[in-house]
Write a structure and sequence with these properties.
By secondary structure, the chain is mainly alpha-helical. The chain is 75% helix and 0% strand. It is built from 5 helices and no strands. Helix 1 crosses helix 3 and helix 3 runs antiparallel to helix 4. The longest helix is centred in the N-terminal third of the chain and has 30 residues. The chain starts with a helix and ends with a helix.
């Protein structure tokens, strides 16, 4: 299996996990409250990652923490927005519509990040094919509303 195919499969599995996570978080939010569920999800995540690191499953180096650009740490704040946004939107829209809207937002943002090579990533030019794909995604989202 090539590295590309493996990465594609991994991305698909992440997408599957995101739909499951959003659904589970929404049910938790209905039971204990949306902000409370957001906190619980993060605490559980911290515990799991801490256990993985305790068993030496990480290959990084915490001593380089201060060498990363300041803005990369905004990911933690953005993660709160993601978790809360997903668990708050799914009960109102349903899993399929919310997930479809999320994907359109992700792809739109990803196209901008790729095109400009933001955050030090490689530039990947925007093309008319990608524009057409984005239009189809948006149209698909609209069709999901019916």
């Amino acid at each position: 299996m090539t590295e590309f195919v493996f990465a594609l499969i991994l991305a698909a599995v992440a997408g599957l996990a995101m739909a499951m996570q959003g659904s589970l978080n929404s049910v938790l939010g209905k039971n204990i409250g949306q902000l409370e569920a957001t906190l619980v999800v993060h605490v559980v995540g911290i515990i799991v990652v801490a256990l993985l690191l305790m068993f030496k499953l990480g290959h990084g180096d915490f001593s380089k923490f201060g060498q990363a650009p300041w803005y990369v740490y905004l990911g933690g704040i953005i993660n709160v927005l993601i978790i809360y946004g997903v668990l708050a939107s799914i009960p109102r829209l349903g899993v399929a519509v919310a997930t479809t809207a999320i994907i359109v937002g992700q792809v739109s943002t990803a196209l901008v990040i790729d095109h400009f090579g933001l955050f030090g990533l490689d530039k990947i030019c925007f093309t008319w094919y990608k524009c057409f794909g984005l239009i189809l995604l948006a149209a698909g989202t609209r069709l999901m509303l019916n």
